[in-house]
Specification:
- Helices cover about 20% and strands about 35% of the residues.
- The two termini are about 15 Å apart.
- The chain has a single domain, classed as 2-Layer Sandwich (Alpha-Beta Plaits).
- β7 and β8 form a beta hairpin.
- With about 200 residues, it is of the alpha+beta class.
- Strands 1, 2, 3, 4, 5, 6, 7, 8, 9 and 10 form a ten-stranded antiparallel β-sheet that branches.
- The chain contains four helices and ten strands.
């Protein structure tokens, strides 16, 4: 298998729901003191350290970092290494959600440091041909990437659940886009340039 065929083939997100009265300052301190550790991690395109807080456009407290990997070796090195074990030690073993990457596009604010992110999941109905759903999602993703303030947009699919995922990083406050809204506490992007532009096949 050539290196090109592995681009964006493995994306993942760790979702850690937290109690309603959880001190989110703990998460902020954790990211401030440890986030830089992945700034040079091999095989990692982007890791966005995401949080949302109850009452601030969210019904829950949540720590939900999202990773875009350029190669499976990088993801495996993280999952089976001390980095992920640190999450397990501090929060218990979280659910690791996993998608196949479909496209990645830099936006008009690509040079900016993102402060916000949106994540929108869309189920593919059983009555809809997967190829039709993916093509429509690609068009939507391209439109989203052109919105002023967009840093980058990624599209992925979970073929086990037949669910599409739209993920966008924003320079400032996200527009009234559908989905979950997060603050970006830190961005690690050691191999961002290797993610490639456009559809991944």
């Amino acid at each position: 298998m050539s290196p090109l065929s592995l681009r964006l083939s493995l994306w993942r997100s760790v979702s850690t729901p937290l109690p309603a009265n959880y001190d989110m300052g703990i998460i902020r301190t954790r990211v401030a003191t440890r986030g830089h550790l992945l700034d040079t991690f091999p095989g990692l395109g982007i890791k966005a350290y995401l949080v949302r807080e109850r009452g601030a456009r969210s019904p829950v407290n949540q720590y939900a970092p999202l990773y875009l990997w350029t190669a499976p070796e990088g993801m495996n090195a993280f999952l089976w290494g001390p980095g992920f074990q640190g999450i397990v030690d501090d929060f218990g073993r979280p659910e690791v959600q996993h998608w196949t990457g479909l496209s990645y596009t830099e936006g008009p604010a690509a040079a900016a440091l993102p402060r916000r992110a949106t994540r929108h999941r869309v189920p593919i109905p059983a009555s809809t041909a997967p190829v039709e759903a993916v093509e429509a999602a690609l068009v939507e993703s391209e439109k989203r990437a052109k919105v002023p303030g967009a840093v980058a947009t990624a599209l992925a699919v979970d073929p086990r659940r037949w669910e599409l995922l739209h993920f966008t990083l924003w320079e400032h406050d996200a527009p009234e886009a559908p989905g979950e809204h997060f603050k970006v506490l830190h961005l690690s992007m050691p191999e961002r340039e290797r993610l490639g532009e456009g559809r991944q096949w």
